[in-house]
TrEMBL record:
Protein name: L-rhamnose mutarotase
PANTHER family: L-RHAMNOSE MUTAROTASE
Gene3D superfamilies: 3.30.70.100
InterPro entries per record: Dimeric_a/b-barrel, Rham/fucose_mutarotase
């Protein structure tokens, strides 16, 4: 199992709404994530907007590609793009670049 961690930056003026949107993620989005291999997926948000994502998957590239093929992901990404800083025209899911793991205690 591959552990993946990534960071993004949520706009300071959108923090509350971002939290609200994630309190009730669409059931079809949750189902698509599970079906495409996203396990133990968590998002952590700091008060300055730093968003840390963590998930476990067999193959992160395949998990991303699986979501890319779903209609619900296109809708979700379009709705969520305005919440983030520094996407440079990319969708949020295209900006999730895994951090390098330097230590793991099993």
């Amino acid at each position: 199992m591959q552990r993946v961690c990534f960071v993004l930056k949520v706009r300071a003026d959108r923090l509350d709404e971002y939290r609200e949107r994630h309190a009730e993620v669409w059931p079809e989005m949750r189902a698509a994530l599970s079906a495409t291999g996203w396990h133990n997926y968590s998002l952590f948000l700091r008060e300055d907007g730093l968003l840390v994502g963590y998930l476990e998957t067999e193959d992160f590239a395949a998990a991303l590609a699986g979501m890319e093929a779903t209609e619900v992901n296109a809708r979700w990404q379009a709705e969520m793009a305005s919440f983030f800083e520094q996407l440079d025209g990319a969708r949020p899911d295209e900006s999730m670049k895994p951090l390098t793991e330097v230590f793991h205690l099993a």
